[in-house]
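Lab meeting, item 3. Inverse folding demo.
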């Protein structure tokens, strides 16, 4: 499988009160609450793990294509059933094992697990990798998600329509020093009894400061024979297209925990492919 080229997609994530948690022991440098966010172990600066961004985008794409993927798997299973070889020899055992695997992948999708079908027609598996499928023939995952670090003023220079408030690395360091923060905000929460109105279970949750900006990067690998590999326009690549769809879904959803109660709204700005503006983003 010949690697032909890479597309480098960059941009800035505007994250409102986001929270990706970790254990207190792993961030002892900054564990100001029992519920800390993930930080760099040396600097204490918050960041967005590439795994979190990839996992959330993948899950939203899978939820939006579940019926289609189930239908494709069922069709493939029926095709395999018609190919049953006669006898009880090695070929029949291989056929039976292939059928068993496909049925397991179908059941795993129905149970809410990541897609692992590995079918040629499955763009999810091709872009993100087939989950727990070591028998697939799709080659390496096409999308590589980097950790997103706090953006600098230089990173956002020239980007229009950024909302307020907005905070870069320089801003957050400055305000944290002035106000005794540690690059994050503390949000107090509790549970209100529906009958008595009394509060219970008080807790403090650490969140990224509302309006923080993060510099993101996703690499798209293009291999010989991939759909769209002959095109000179990155926007024609199906893995670029599915990434765009996933980002748009994410902007309507949330990134991190507690998103149904105000945490983690995201918006992407200044999106580029290989340093050029992403057309029609």
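The presenter then showed the designed sequence:
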């Amino acid at each position: 499988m010949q690697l032909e080229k890479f597309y480098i997609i960059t941009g800035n994530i505007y994250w409102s009160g986001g929270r990706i948690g970790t254990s207190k022991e792993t961030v002892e440098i900054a564990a100001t609450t029992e519920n800390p966010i993930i930080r760099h172990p040396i600097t204490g600066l918050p960041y967005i793990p590439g795994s979190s961004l990839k996992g959330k985008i993948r899950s939203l794409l899978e939820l939006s294509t579940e019926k289609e993927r189930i239908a494709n798997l069922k069709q493939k299973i029926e095709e395999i059933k018609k190919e049953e070889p006669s006898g009880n020899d090695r070929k029949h055992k291989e056929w039976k094992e292939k059928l068993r695997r496909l049925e397991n992948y179908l059941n795993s999708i129905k149970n809410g697990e990541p897609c692992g079908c590995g079918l040629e027609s499955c763009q999810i598996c091709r872009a993100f990798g087939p989950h727990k499928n070591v028998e697939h023939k799709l080659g390496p995952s096409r999308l590589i998600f980097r950790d997103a670090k706090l953006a600098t003023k230089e990173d956002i220079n020239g980007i229009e329509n950024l909302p307020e408030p907005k905070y870069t690395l320089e801003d957050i360091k400055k305000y944290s020093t002035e106000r005794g923060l540690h690059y994050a905000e503390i949000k107090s929460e509790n549970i209100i009894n529906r009958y008595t109105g009394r509060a219970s279970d008080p807790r403090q949750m650490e969140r990224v400061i509302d309006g923080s900006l993060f510099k993101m990067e996703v690499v798209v690998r293009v291999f010989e024979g991939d759909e769209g590999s002959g095109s000179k326009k990155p926007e024609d690549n199906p893995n670029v297209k599915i990434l765009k769809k996933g980002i748009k879904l994410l902007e309507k959803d949330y990134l991190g925990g507690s998103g149904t109660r105000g945490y983690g709204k995201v918006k992407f700005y200044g999106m580029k492919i290989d340093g050029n503006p992403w057309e029609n983003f």
